[in-house]
Amino acid sequence: MKKVFVNGYGSIGSRIIQFIADDKDIEVIGVGKYSPDDKVADAISRGFHVYVPKAKTDAFKNYKISGAIEDVISQSDLVIDASPGGVGYENKKTLYEPKNVSAIFQGGEKIGGDESVAGLIFNSRVNYEKAFDSKYVMQGSCNVTGMGRILQPLKEKYGKKLKRFDATLLRRWADLEDSKTQVKDSIEWTRKPHHNEDVKSYMGADTPLFIRALKVPTRQMHVHLMDIRFDGPAPSAQEIIDLYKNEYGVATLYNAKGTKDIRDYAESIKFNFKDTNMIHIHADVTEVQDDTVKLTYSDDQTGIVVPENHLLMQAMLFKRKREDAFKHTEELFHMEEKKKLLQEHFAKK
User: Fold this and answer.
1) What's the pLDDT score for residue 349?
2) Domains observed in the chain
3) Is residue 57 within 8 Å of residue 40, measured between CB atoms?
4) Where's the active site on this chain (predicted)?
5) 292-299 and 287-289: which strand pairing?
6) 10-residue stretch averages of pLDDT, the chain, 349 residues long
7) From CA 75, how far away is CA 32, in angstroms rounded?
8) Choosing from 40, 69, 142, 278, which is the catalytic residue?
9) Residue 191 half-sphere exposure, CB side, CA atoms within 13 Å?
10) Of 228, 220, 324, the residue nearest 265 (C-alpha)
C-alpha cells in the first residue's frame, strides 16, 4: 500500500488529510506541523500522527508527537506539501530531493526560475495524464484551477472561433479560517498577477488570455468576470451555459444573491468545511453582446483544489485511468451530489 504524508495542516492541509484518510488505496502516515498551536491538538484528536521538525521538538513537549518530519519523509511514497507559499521550495531542497521522495506542491509556489518546485502545473480537466511520470508537480491555485474548468470546454467546442479571453479576478482577501489576517476596508490590485502565466503553462503559451486581479474585502470565495470574444457573432448565453451541464465540479446557479449566499447554503446542509469544492456559473448574470460572452462565475477558494490534489495523487502514484480516477474521487467527495443540491436550491425561478 502506498504511503502518503501531508506536510502542513493549514487551510489546505487540514482539508486534504481529512478527505484522503478515507481512501483505502493509500495509508496516510501522518501530518507535519511547524507551530505548537491549537491545530496540533485538533489533528491528534482526529487520529492523525503528528510529526514536527527535529529542531523544534521541545516546543511541542505538551503534545503527543509521533516523531520527526525528517524521518517520516523517508517512509513516504508521496508527500503532499501544504506548507505556506514559498516554503515548499525550501522543503523540496532540504527534504524531498535529498530523500528522493515525490511531492505535490500547492499554488503559492513557482514553476520556472531559480525557485521552481516543478515543471508542471496540474489541471485535471486539461493535462491529467502528464502527471504520470512526474516526480514533482504543482497543483494550481484555486483561481488557476477554476479557469481550466472554464477554458478547456470552450477550447474543445469552439477552437479557432475563440478570439481572446479577458478576465478580471475578484479575489477574496483571506480564507475563512485565517484569523491572523485582518480583512482591510480597501480594494487592492496585483501588478503582473501570476495567474496569467500559470494558466498558459497548461492551456498553451499561445492562449489569448489577459488577466487583471483585484483583492476585495471578503472571505467568501473569488469571483471571475470573464469576457469571451469570438471571431464573429457569439453563441447564445444558453448555449454557453449548456456547455457546462455535464462538467465535473461546475454548477450552474440562477438566483444566488452573492458568494456568502452559496457558502451559507453549503453550511446549512453540512458540506465539510462549508466547501462546495467547485466553481459556480451565475447564469442569471451571464449575457451576450455582439461578439462577446460575458461570463460570471464564483470559485470556491481553497476547497476547489482539494479534490484536485486527490486526482493528482492518483495520477502520480497509480497512473490510474482518468475516468477511473474521477470515479474514485467522487466516492470520497460526492461532488455530483453537491452539484445537484446546489443547482436545485439555486434553480431558475
Assistant:
1) 81
2) 2-140+305-333 (3.40.50.720), 142-302+334-345 (3.30.360.10)
3) no
4) 142
5) antiparallel
6) 97 96 97 96 98 96 96 97 92 97 95 93 98 96 97 98 98 90 96 95 97 97 98 98 98 97 95 95 97 98 96 98 98 97 95
7) 14
8) 142
9) 0
10) 220
> What residue has cell string 518546485?
117
- Please tell me what DSSP assigns to residue 57: G
- Output DSSP code: residue 96: I
Taking each helix axis from N to C terminus, what angle separates 305-318 and 322-333, rounded to the nearest 10 degrees?
Answer: 140
CA-closest candidate to residue 125, choices 247, 245, 221, 243: 247
The rounded radius of gyration (Å) of the Cα atoms in the chain is 20
Write out the three cell numbers for 346: 439555486
Q: Identify the burial level of 270 via C-beta atoms within 10 angstroms of its C-beta, where 0-12 means exposed, 13-18 middle and 19 or more buried.
A: exposed
Task: Reply yes or no on whether 349 is catalytic.
Answer: no
Q: Which amino acid is at 300?
A: D
CB 82 within 8 A of CB 9: yes
Cα distance between residue 173 and residue 171, in whole Å = 6
Q: Which residues on neighbouring strands pair with residue 116, listed in sequence order? A: 110
The pairing of beta strand 26-32 with beta strand 50-52: parallel
In a 13 Å sphere around the CA of 167, the CA atoms on its Cβ side amount to 29
Residue that has been written with the C-alpha cell 453549503 in this structure = 266
The helix (H) or strand (E) run that includes residue 14 is: helix 11-20
pLDDT at 262 (0 to 100): 97
The secondary element (H helix, E strand) that includes residue 145 is helix 142-158
Q: Which three cell numbers stand for residue 270?
A: 453540512
The cell 488557476 sits on which residue?
144
In this structure, what C-alpha cell is assigned to residue 244? Answer: 457546462
| Longest CA pairwise span in the chain (Å) | 67
Cell of 252: 450552474
If we measure between CA atoms, which residue out of 281, 282, 284, 273 comes closest to residue 307? 273
Q: Is 238 exposed, middle or buried (0-12, 13-18, 19+ CB in 10 A)?
A: exposed
Dihedral (Cα; 137, 139, 141, 147), 10-degree rounding: 110
Q: Indicate the burial class of 179 (C-beta count within 10 angstroms; 0-12, 13-18, 19 or more).
A: exposed
Q: What is residue 210's predicted lDDT score, i.e. its pLDDT? A: 98
| Contact (CB, 8 A) for 88 and 109 | yes
